[in-house]
Design brief:
heterotrimer, A mainly alpha, B mainly alpha, C mainly alpha, A: mainly alpha, about 0% strand, elongated, B: mainly alpha, about 85% helix, flat
Chain lengths: ~110, ~90, ~400
């Protein structure tokens, strides 16, 4: 494999590991605020890693401008997601907190106000 | 390289399955909204990956549309959950 | 097991699980969210089959607009469904099972996925592929034909099965097109001197340069070969918007303030929305214009445009949207889109061609005329679709103000 394929494989593997960890955490965590950590953070990181890895393996010439179109578009998607995904997570958290959701502690399971 | 793509695609699909479990079985409504948002992001990655599997990286336009559409849907869902109305 | 089959199987499992969950979950709110998930997953299935335009439309309409409208109807509904007393309704179950079995039995007769001998790969499609993708470079857009290229050599072909050799090892016919080199099997057309093949009751379209060197064959089919069909589709969308206005709009008394609940107290959301709305609108216009050269087109771009306006209405409130885009303007623009479409067709009449025959628009090069006509037509479709979607959202949201 050429060097760019090896680099891409590393990034894709890291992205997969992060994704799977986040998903498993979403099922195992005890309450909503803990699940936020896993889902929100791993989401943003995984998409950055995978999209950045795919930049290396895009076909097309590197020296002329025309070959960079798709690579720039990939990074653009990454930038859009970096701005939009944490905003959505923040909005979800704020809405949940304002509606009275209580976090989980060992003594008191929390949850929605009865 | 096709094998690497396939493994990544299967990993993303397994992640989608697990997120789907949370979307269906979440005890509170906020869990479901979180899972739906995460499924949207994973779908964007999956579309890009499918483009590379097919050998046509022009699918990236679709990923941009997915990102915007998922963002807007999440905002609409949140507005309803918070204010109870849609305007 | 190839890659496509594995991904397809897993995706279809996910889709089935989501569909069952939509029915079984009792909370209506969760059902609406799962519907959006279902639309996104179906769009992935279409992408797996390499049909980009369908996936675009499914994602934009199903994942975006449909979910927003479903949430809009949830305002009037109770939070949970009633519990059913009887679990299984025997006549309905038997009818569904029989219909499903009949459908599955019907699909056994269909050709295999990607089979070059399938009827879809004859008649019209290889002609279009050879006209457009065969001599256009991948990213350079519209170009005149290269030196010594004889368009008639590509345009006549021999009819259904004779064009392709039956022997699978005879691959000489594949070596003449760029498509074949990329791995897509398309039967290439043959030498000049073969007349169009007339079977009984089936007329081949006379050879012409009808689809204007546009690489995206879906758009050229929609706007060129089936131009009437798309015009009436646009009219149907326009009629839907008009009927919604007639049904739901009530005259408002002057001076009555509109209640609304903007989300402007959330600083982060407000700033990010302000930053992203120009880009969403610009991207919608890009999708409409770029529909000729890549996946996209009028319908998809119109929905993205509408989503931009809807985002503005969600975060800043509907009165703010009415200041920017009053209902009068929206109503007029729904009609303007259909007018642009039919007007382009009529302009072709003025230039001496038939109705919706865009090649008359540019007498020097009919192919360029086709491309110009299709661009105009896609803009018409995009304007109508975006304004009708916005009208639907406005009317639905206005219901709550009463």
């Amino acid at each position: 494999m050429a060097w760019n394929e090896i680099v891409c494989t590393i990034f894709l593997a890291l992205g997969c590991v992060v994704t799977l960890t986040g998903s498993v955490g979403l099922v195992r965590m005890p309450d909503f605020y803990a699940r936020l950590h896993t889902a929100g953070k791993t989401d943003s990181l995984a998409q950055l890693l995978i999209l950045f890895g795919l930049v290396f393996v895009t076909p097309g010439p590197v020296d002329e401008i025309g070959g960079w179109l798709i690579r720039v578009k990939l990074l653009m998607v990454g930038m859009i997601l970096i701005i939009a995904a944490p905003t959505a997570t923040h909005a979800i958290t704020k809405a949940a907190h304002l509606s009275g959701l209580k976090p989980w502690t060992k003594t008191d399971p929390g949850g929605e106000p009865k | 390289m096709q094998l690497v793509y396939l493994i990544t695609a299967v990993a993303l699909l397994v992640g989608l399955f697990i997120l789907g479990i949370r979307a269906i079985a979440g005890p509170t409504v906020w869990d479901r909204i979180l899972a739906t948002n995460a499924i949207g992001t994973k779908t964007i990655l999956f579309v890009t990956l499918l483009g590379y599997i097919a050998g046509r990286p022009e699918f990236i336009d679709m990923a941009i549309i997915y990102a915007l559409v998922t963002f807007i849907t999440t905002i609409a869902i949140l507005k309803f959950a918070e204010k109870g109305r849609l305007d | 097991m190839t890659t496509i089959v594995i991904i397809d199987t897993l995706l279809l499992l996910l889709v089935t699980a989501t569909a069952i969950a939509i029915i079984e979950v009792r909370s209506l709110y969760a059902s609406a969210m799962l519907t959006s998930v279902y639309s996104l997953l179906m769009a992935l299935v279409w992408v797996n089959m390499h049909s980009m335009d369908v996936a675009f439309t499914e994602a934009a309409v199903g994942g975006g607009i449909s979910t927003i409208l479903l949430i809009g109807t949830l305002v009037h509904l109770p939070r949970e469904e009633k519990k059913l007393k009887k679990r299984l309704h025997a006549p309905a179950a038997i009818t569904c099972a029989l219909a499903g079995a009949a459908l599955i039995y019907g699909t056994l007769d269909m050709p295999n996925f990607g089979d070059p001998m399938a009827p879809i790969h004859h008649y019209r499609v290889p002609e279009m592929m050879s006209q457009t993708v065969g001599f256009i470079n991948q990213t350079k857009g519209k170009q005149p034909a290269p030196e010594g290229f004889d368009p008639y050599a590509y345009r006549t072909f021999n009819g259904a099965v004779q064009g392709i050799p039956k022997d699978p090892t005879d691959t000489a016919w594949r070596e003449t097109s760029i498509i074949a080199q990329r791995g897509i099997m398309v039967p290439q057309v043959l030498t000049p001197g073969h007349e169009p093949h007339h079977e009984a009751g089936h007329h081949l379209h006379p050879p012409d340069d009808f689809n204007g060197h546009i690489p995206n064959s879906v758009t050229s089919l929609l706007a060129g070969y089936r131009g009437y069909d798309t015009m009436f589709e646009t009219t149907v969308i326009f009629t839907a918007g008009v009927s919604l206005i007639m049904l739901l709009r009530r005259p408002r008394r002057e001076g009555e303030a509109q209640k609304s609940a903007p989300m402007t107290d959330q600083v982060i959301l407000r700033v990010v929305t302000k930053m992203s709305i120009p880009f969403i609108l610009l991207f919608g216009l890009y999708v409409i214009t770029h529909g000729e050269l890549g996946p996209g087109g009028g319908f998809q771009g119109g929905v993205v445009l509408a989503c931009g306006f809807i985002l503005f209405a969600l975060v800043f409130g509907r009165p703010a949207l009415y200041r920017v885009l009053p209902p009068r303007v929206t109503d007029v623009l729904t009609g303007v889109g259909v007018l642009i479409y039919s007007g382009t067709g009529a302009a072709c009449l003025f230039f001496g061609g038939k109705f919706l025959d865009y090649s008359a628009l540019n007498a020097a090069s009919p192919g360029e005329g086709e491309a110009l006509g299709m661009t105009l037509v896609e803009y018409g479709v995009g304007i109508t679709v975006s304004m009708v979607m916005l009208t639907i959202f406005n009317q639905l949201a206005e219901e709550q103000s009463k």
